Structures are given as structure tokens and as C-alpha cells.
Amino acid sequence: MTEFRILLLLFSLMQFLLPSHDVLADTGPKPSMEFAFKQELTGEQVTIISGILYECDQPDCSDASSLEELGPQRFYCEAESCRALAYGFAPYHRLEIEFSDGVTRESNIFETTGFDSKYTVTVNPDDLQVDAQLSLGVLPPIAIIAVTCICVLVGLALIVGLIILIRRRSAKN
Predict the structure, then answer these.
(1) For the structural domain made of 32-138, what CATH number should be given?
(2) Entry pTM
(3) What was the pLDDT predicted at 23?
(4) DSSP code string of 106-161
């Protein structure tokens, strides 16, 4: 019985002597949006003060609500660009950006274009025009991997087929 108590005491003391580490868990890559701004204003160029990304399930954005800030999910802006990271985006969006000239401009309604979406935002005197940039980033990484695997398999099948054809022809001669 005393050996059991000694072992129990030893294990209890080891918990205090061993260093403790914080454990961080993540669910993997998250969808993102990047907004690059170009200005069509005459005169002094403006910088971004703050912004809101509205998400909508309806095509007319009648149910708009701002992207919530939860863990890494957020919308943030720098002087000349904005970025959003989320666990998942709604299908439709609208931007509202406050600029250094004191004007708050709203964008057209635009759709999510992919897992890592990239947009060009044209700053006009009274509003914003959001246009999607087409790139390979539009496809999710899993789609690119799947297409690559299919191409490799088709290539290997063609090579094996060619080897079999050559062997059969040489066996006949």
C-alpha cells in the first residue's frame, strides 16, 4: 500500500514540475477576400479610414448584416487596401468604406467568386465599383489538386497503353 501512495505522490508532483503548454487548434484554411483600391477621383488621392463588409443571402442585399468578428474572422482595412477572413462567406456582399476626405462610399452588390477571392475596387466621387479579378485563386486548392491528379493518372494510363501496344506489336513480329 505504501508503494502505491509513493507512486501517486510522485505522479502528482510531476504534474507541477513538467512545463505546461498552451494548445492551439485550428480548422485549417479559411476563405478570404482581398480588395485592392484604385481611384478615379480628380484632385487629391484619399486613403481608407475604416470599412464594413456587409454579407447578404438575398441578391438585392435586403438582408444585409456586417461580417461578425469571431476569432480570426474579421474585415480590416489599411490605407489603400482591405481584407476579409471568415469561416464562410454569404453569397452576396456590399462594401461601405469611410475615406480621408470625410465621404463614406457604398459599393455595388457583388458575389463571392471563390475560396480566395480578389477584387478591384474603383473609388468614384460618390460610390465604389467592385469587380472580381480572375485568377487561379478563384479555384479552391482541393480543385487544383484534383485536376492535377486526374492529369497525372491520364498521362500514366497513356504511357502504360503505349508500352502494351509496343510489346504486342513486337511479339507478333
Answers:
(1) 2.60.40
(2) 0.63
(3) 57
(4) EBPPEE--SSEEEEEEEE-SS-EEEEEPPSGGGS-HHHHHHHHHHHHHHHHHHHHH
